[in-house]
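Database export, one record per block. Field names are fixed; values are copied verbatim from the stored entry.
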Amino acid sequence: MIVLLLGLLQAEGLAHAFIYETAKPVRSVSVAGTFNNWNQSANPMRLESDGKTWKTMFRIEPGKHQYKFVLNGSEWVTDPKAAKNEDDGNGNVNSVLLMLPPGYEKPSLVGDGTVTESAIKHLQKVPYLNYDKGKLSFELRTRPVDLQRVDVLTYEEAHDFKRVRSVKLREFPLNELTSVWRGQLDWDRSGLLASAFRITDGNLTTFFDANGIEVNPKKDFEL
């Protein structure tokens, strides 16, 4: 059995309105993209009183998304008003939507002693957390060029924060919005194991656990 006191900070998403004006009458319009697994039925749009403008609004997780409008259930078209279109690597050109998380309006800088909290994310499932062949792997998502160091601290609950192990994570940039910090440790799956991420940047040292960002989760780790 494993009990992990890890961060579950998940963005509820940012509201975004999709608008499409048709040049000819159509029976239906929907929007499909990476935010809904390209499901053309997930987000149907509503026809406005002018008879040509279709709208819908819903919450989308911050990040970079590709999307298209689907006309009459079969015709996939890019957004004429999109700021950017790009190839998805498979020969398909899609419109791009960039949803900036809170805090991204300020530039990030390693060593400035500040952390973009909205970018920090960990879930208790693959790929954030995984056990395979005696190795327990951890992944924490953050903003790129924002942190000096991330460690995962693990301890056996029976020892009340004693016998702490510290593993330094390595940063791997994913894109302009997200980096992942990864590391792993040996574990025999015996007993109860708990953990938290220690984040260091400049003169700031803080922890990320099930309660989000904390200076000291429960009590100081005894290293």
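Remark 1: The radius of gyration is 22 Å.
Remark 2: The chain has no helices and 17 strands.
End of record.
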